[in-house]
Every structure is written in C-alpha cells, then in structure tokens.
Amino acid sequence: MNYLVGLLSVVFFILAITVISKSLKLNKNLSGENESDSALDSHNNSNAVGFLLFWLFGTIAGVWSFLHSQPDFLPEAASAHGVKTDSMFWISMAVVTFAFFITNSLLFFFAFQYRNDKNRKATFYPVNHKLEIIWTIIPAIVMAILVFTGWRTWRDITSQAPSNAVVIEVTGHQFGWYVRYAGNDDSQLGNINYKLIDETNSLGLDFTDKNTFDDFTASELHLPKGVPVLLKIRAQDVLHSVYLPFQRVKMDAVPGMPTKFWFTPTISTDEMRAKLGKKDFNYKLNCTEICGRGHFGMAITVFVDEPADYKKWVAEQKPFLTMNPAYLSKVPENLKAKASKYIPAEPIATDSTAVEAVSVK
Amino acid sequence: MSTAISTTEEVIAHGHDHGHDHEHEHHELGFIRKYIFSEDHKTIAKQYLISGILWAFIGGSLSIIFRLQLGFPDMSLEWLRPILGEWIDESGKLDKEFYLALVTMHGTIMVFFVLTAGLSGTFSNFLIPLQIGARDMASGFINMLSYWFFALSSVIMFSSLFIETGPASGGWVIYPPLSALPQAMPGSGLGMTLWLTSMALFIVSQLMGGINYICTIINLRTRGMTFTKMPLTIWSFFFTAVLGLLSFPVLLSAALLLIFDRSFGTSFYLSEIYIQGQALPNMGGSPILYQHLFWFLGHPEVYIVLLPALGMTSEVIATNARKPIFGYRAMIGSMMGITVLAFIVWAHHMFVTGMNPFLGSVFMFLTLIIAVPSAVKGFNYITTLWKGNIIFTPAMLFSIGLVSLFISGGVTGIILGNSALDINLHDTYFVVAHFHLVMGAASFFGLMAGVYHWFPKMFGRMMNKTAGYIHFWFTFVGVYAVFFPMHYTGIAGFPRRYYSFTALGNDGESAFTDLNAFISFAAIITFTAQAIFFFNFFYSIFKGKRATQNPWKSNTLEWTTPIVPGHGNWEGEIPAVYRWPYDYSKPGSEADFIPQTVPHSATPESNLPEENDEIAKEKEIESLLAAQNESYNR
C-alpha cells in the first residue's frame, strides 16, 4: 500500500509540475490580450487552467481520501449474502469510478484544451449518429450486466427462508427494540395483538395461543453462527428500520405490516473481535428510518455465537410466562394445564427489566 | 424586494414604445398591478427568482446549523440562543427534535421552494415567451395566481419555523405514521398541519404554472418556430411541466389522505399502532401506500428540478463553446426518455421498506434503464466542448460544473438503483452524497448558470464577472469537498438523519470525526461564499454595467428584443424564425453565430445542402404573419 501511495505521489508530482509550467506559459500570453470583446476577458485562460488544476488536485484528493478512509469502512461482511453484495458493490464501484474518472477527465481536459483562441474557429460538428448509437449501446450493455447480476443476488436474498431457519422476532418502538424467541419447546412464535400491550407485556403476547407459552424475550439479539436466521420484523408505533451493518441486513419495521429478512451469520462475535483486534467489539442493531427524538440512539447489541454456545444461551432463557406468572390468568381454561407447566413452583424474583430494551432520551 | 424590481421596471417603462399594432391596453399600470400583482411573465419570473434566492439562504443556513452539530458535536451552541431560543437545550446543545426539524425543513425548502419554484418557476416563466416568440404566457392571470399561491404557501411554510412545537420534523418525505401522530413527535402537531397546508397550496401553484407553460409552448410559438427549431431550454421546460402536471396531483392526494388520517380519524396509512401507552383504534391502513403515492411524485420531482437545469446548460454550453450542441435530437430524445421513465422508477426508493421483493426486481430493471439517456446527455455535453472555442463566462463555468456534478452524482445512482446493493446503502450517507450531487448541486449550478446568463435580459445590466468567477470556484470546490467524502461515511454504514453517531458503537463515530468536521467546515465556507453572489446580484440590479443587445452573441430569440423588453416583449412585429438555434461557427459564415431570425436565403455561403430546401419555406413562414397578429388581436 505504501508503495502504491509513493508511486501515485510521484505521478502526481510530475503532473503538477507539467500543469504549473503550462499555466505559467499561458500567463505570459495573457499580457498581450485585449479586452474589447465583452464576453471574453483576460481571465479566460486562468479559468481554463482552473479546470485542469481542479482535475489534478481533485484526483489527488480523491485517491488520498479514499485510502485514508478505507480502514474505517465496514469490515468484511459477517453474513453469507453480505459477502456477495460486498463483492458486487466493489465491482460496480470500480466500473462507475472508471466511467466517472474518464468522463470528468475528458470534460476538464476539453475545457482546458479548447479554451478560446482568437485565431481559431470552433468546429461545426452538430451530429454523429454512429457515435450516439455507440454510447447508447455501451452503457446499455454495462447496465444490463449489472442489473442481471444484481437481480440474481436480490432474488436469492429475498427468496423463502430455508425451513431450518431460526425464527426471531424484532419489534421496533420509540426508542428501542424488543427481541422475542420462539422458545425451547416449540419453534413457533405465538400470536401477538397490539391491543393486549400493557406495562409488563410490552409486546402484546396473546396467551390464548399455546405457542406463546414458551416464548421468551431478550434485550440483546443472539444469533447462531452458520445457521440461517429469519428475522420477523414488526413496529408498534411509527416506522423503524432494522439495520445490522456488519451483516449487511436492512429492512423497515412497519406498523400493521410484519416484514422479514433472512440471512446466515458467518462470523461470530469472538472471531470478529480477533480479526479486528478489538477485544470489546460488538455487533449492533441500529435504526435507519427516522422515528423521532431518540432515532439516533435506538440500538441494541447483537451477539453471534457458535451454534453450541447459542443452544446453551437459549436453554438458559426463561419463558415470559415463567417470569410473569400472573399472566396465567389470561390463558383460557382449556389451555391452563399446558400453560401451568411454565409456572414456577415458587415465585422467582421478577425481572421484568429483561424486556426493556435500551432507550435513549 | 419590490423596490429591487421597480427600479429596473422603470427603465422598462421609459423605454417602452406604444406603437404596437396589436391591441393590448397601453395605459400605465399602477404600482400594484405592475410590480406586485403583475401579469407580465418577466416580472413574475423575477418574483420567483428573488423568492427562490431568499429561500435558498434560509434553507442553506438551516443546513449550516445541523452541520455544526454533526461536525463539532462537542461545541457549545450557546451563542445561537438569541436566534434559536429554547431549541438550544440547557447544556448548550442543539435540541434533538429541532435537529430533525432542521433536516426536514432544509430538504423541503431546497427541493420545493428553491429548486422547483426558484429554478423552474423563474426560467420557465422568463424564457418560454422570450425564446419561442410570444408576447406573454397563454394566461397571464393564471400565471399571476400561480406566483401568489406560491407566495402564500411560502408564508405558511416560513411561519411554521416559528411556532412553539417546531416545524414538521419527520424528514422531507414525511412518512406516516410519524407524521400522522402528533404524539409521536412535537413537530407532527401544528408544524405538520402547516406543512401540509403549505404544500397543498404549493401544488396548486405548480399546476397553474405547468398548464400555462404547456399551453404557451404548444400554442404561442412564433411563425417558423417548429418543435424541431425550439431551443433545448424550451424542450426541457416542456418536459418539466408535463412531469409536474402529471405527478403533483398524486402528491396532493397523498397529502389529502394524510390530512384525513390526522384530522378526521380515517385509517389510510395507520394500522395496529400502540403509542404513548395507548392502543389506537385504526386498523387496515398501510404506511407503504403513502410511500408509493409520495414517490410517484418524489421521483419525477428529481427530474422536475434537474431537467430545466440541463436544458439551460445545453443553451449556455453551446453559446459559449461557440459550437452547436452535439446531438440536438438525441438530447430531445433522451429528455423524452427520462420523462417517460421518471414515472416508472419511483419504487427504487422503497427496496427495503417491506414492499414485495418482486416489485423491487421490476423497479431495479426500470431504474437502471434511465441511466442510459442520462449517460447520452453527459457524452453529448462533453462532445459539445470538443473542438469548441470556449469562453468561460460565469454561466459557462457553472454549466461545466453542472455536467461534472451530474456525472459524479449520477454514477452512484447505478449502485443505489441495484436493489441488492441498496440493502446496505439505503438511508446512509452514501444516498445523501448521491442525491446532493446529482440533483441538489447539479440543479443549483443550473440555476446559477441561468442567472448569470440571463441576468442582462432580466435587468438590462451585467453582473460582475470577476465576482462570478470567484463565486464559481469557491462553490465548485466547496460542493465537492462537502459531498464527496460523504460517500465514505456511507460505505462505513453511517445512517442519515442521525443527531450523533455514538450509538453505532465500537468507537465508530470517532473514525470519521475529522472527516465530519472537514465536511462542516467546507459547508460553512461554501455557504459563506454565496454572499459574493448575493451582493453581486443585488448590486448589479442597480449599479451593474449596462448590458449590450446580445452580450453572449447568442442565436436565440430573446436577444432580439429591446435590451430591457417591455410589456409584449417585442416592439412591432414578433420576429419569424427560420433556423434552429445552434448555428454557431458555421463553415462559410463570416460571423461565428447566425441568429434564428436570419433566413437561409440570406446566408447562401454557409447553407448546408439540405438547408437550401428551407429557402422555399420562407415565403410560407412570412405569410403566417397576418394569422399570428390576428390571434393576438382576438
């Protein structure tokens, strides 16, 4: 990298000298210019040189700032589809940067090269159908390729989640996230109903559905590594958006319309800590849809565990009903027997804070 | 403001010749009818321009305030308390809700009030009659109403900045339910009501303007001004008006449904909401419906602000490169393509909003198609410069700047239009960088090019060129310095509309502390540099050097009017048009430009073989004079 930077700086140094010597030469010519022509003035050549200098220093600044910022970009994608979209992103970036550089360079060079000269007349060149066709077709082909690869990736990402996917529900609210797991006994999330929400049952768990009994909530998101995860996404009040930057996952949370996104985490938290050399690194889930005052702080921590650790963590979690036995009264008579299995013999210390997500005021 | 106009209008009045043969009333209009409730398209254009400039400074200063927060998060903003009052909290920081209000109002003001009204309103009004050879707009009265609806809408929007609960704060897209529920944020109370009222009036104004532009272009072209002889500016205003006329009503319907949801208990956008300890009764609505309706305008809106800028740039580049615009018909074709495609790409703003992913694929295809006509335009501009003989007037500098920004911002659209890549980039600074370059800055540069180029026609005086050069270079370098680095924070996953980046965790915010400070610093410099323009503009209205008849040696019709055209634009007959507007540096011709009014029979030395056939048509064109006068006397 240092070698590259060194090489580039030599190249730019030479270019800079060329440009400056050229502009000096122009300035000499300037003195003889007469200003009778109103639209044209003695600054015409300076402006032309300006475009050349802008091109030169702009290129230096662009390359330097990219190299300087690169270490702070998101690290390698920590999900299976993220690796694909990342590589597609950088390939597309290379293509468009090439187009960007060529066209801008031509623009600035032509501006400089064809600056006004009293002894020259512009070339009358109104049309060339062949050229028009060429530069319609070339971008069309490039677009077609980009669209096609993009579409295939998009189709794979948005396809049905595999049947073995772990289902986790994330619910956005002003200003935090609730996380709910399907529990240890069935892999089904129970129904929820927004009209049942109260201070403790902040998700509106519906206890007339037997799938609800073993569901547990958490204030952090734990994901198993290497296993497909299906996020079911809800919002309670306004729009939010689930953003897992390191996993390249983003999907809006919409009140009244559950959304979903499935992906496979590929790098565990520990592995990412080792890769980045940051012992206290943690994945995050952020909000990316404006939702009010606390929007910018609406984040929870995400852990990607080895499958065994994940199983262990899940097994340790207590269902909501176990933590809040009072809700047994909401269970219909015919299901009471099934539900009472989750009621502890002795009341445990209620820990309702588990459902309170991080909230920034 | 009105005095600014009045001085120059006095010049107009004095230079006004009453010997027209058309039967307009020629009694002197009173002050109010002449400068305030004027039906003259030139006065209305100036009203739009000056309103737009004032709005631009308001919109810009809002962005500077939130850039202070983003660039210097530890800075005490106590010194802003005299202006912002309670919006600075006890710790001397910007209030978090007010931050969102600033972001929202900056977007609303810039997109609608500056770049829609200030750009298209100004130049469509000013140039359409002058460049097609018409005495005024098809309906001067509707045109006047159009401005005054805009003015009323401006007053309402401006007043919302001063109410206690703050202006609308849900982002310029005002997605419900956030914008529908006053309990979700204070800005969704009275501020949002005012926003919606203001926008409804604004849309009325745009529709009245648009229908006028279309009627005028179709019906009032002078004899000989066929569609293929129209300058590209007129083509661009025509497509812009069509876009606005078809898409703004959809925004009005979106706003009306939102008003119903807010005030009359309907559930168009609301469903299953639990907020502030209360479950709302609304069921069955869809926030996605709003997004579809909004972006059905919102995307064409991008082209509504951009097309006029591109049209004016075509004119300025051809004139100052002393060369015909390359690919005149391809330019029209690509604008037509953009216009049609603009209506069927809206959902690329919604790839990850929960919309059906199949729709995402369809819109990705359509979106990337629109890149093709855009690329053609870019190439044509560059080829127009090739072998030109370029005069760098301030307008020309801004036009070249526009092409550069259009390319630089446009290429990242190819990335964002790809739904698979949009997953990670959606709502990050990458998007902010993209649209500020391609639509914000590019259109702004078009506006500036237009002002510098047509200022002599507007006010009969010249703007100071040296100040124009300095203004350009500060702005050009500044705009790149502000928006280019935002791509980097976007790739790093920084979401937009964030008050601070601390919650990204892992010390992520510190990575770009310097960069954010740099961006803010560049923004302040760039904004300050606009003062050069401000003083140049207002000073030159009164004290600028007197303009000559045709200062840029341009071919189009507006330069055949008196230096300060009076009511009716041309004294005597409206000139006939015999040729396209881009005969610059034509081989064989002594002069390096041949105005549109010069018949081919007068230029045998420079006619191309096929143009000799045009000579036969000249009689026909001249014979239309009686009919044309007839139509004005009716």
UniProtKB/TrEMBL annotation, chain A:
All residue ranges annotated as the Cytochrome oxidase subunit II transmembrane region profile domain in the record: 65-161
Binding note for cofactor: Binds a copper A center.
Species for this entry: Aquirufa ecclesiirivi
Protein name per its UniProtKB record: Cytochrome c oxidase subunit 2
Gene3D superfamilies given in the database record: 1.10.287.90, Cupredoxins - blue copper proteins
SUPFAM superfamilies linked to this entry: Cupredoxins, Cytochrome c oxidase subunit II-like, transmembrane region
Listed Pfam families: COX2 (PF00116), COX2_TM (PF02790)
Domain of life: Bacteria
UniProt keyword list: Copper, Electron transport, Membrane, Metal-binding, Respiratory chain, Translocase, Transmembrane, Transmembrane helix, Transport
Function: Subunits I and II form the functional core of the enzyme complex. Electrons originating in cytochrome c are transferred via heme a and Cu(A) to the binuclear center formed by heme a3 and Cu(B).
From TrEMBL, chain B:
Ranges annotated as spanning the membrane: 48-70, 98-128, 140-163, 194-220, 232-260, 293-314, 326-346, 358-379, 391-416, 428-455, 467-488, 517-539
Keyword vocabulary terms for this entry: Electron transport, Heme, Iron, Membrane, Metal-binding, Respiratory chain, Transmembrane, Transmembrane helix, Transport
Disordered: annotated span: 593-620
Record Gene3D superfamilies: Cytochrome c oxidase-like, subunit I domain
Principal location class: membrane
InterPro entries hit by this protein: Cyt_c_oxase-like_su1_dom, Cyt_c_oxase-like_su1_sf, Cyt_C_Oxase_1, Cyt_c_Oxase_su1_BS
Entry's family note: Belongs to the heme-copper respiratory oxidase family.
Protein name in the entry: Cytochrome c oxidase subunit I
Annotated organism of origin: Aquirufa ecclesiirivi
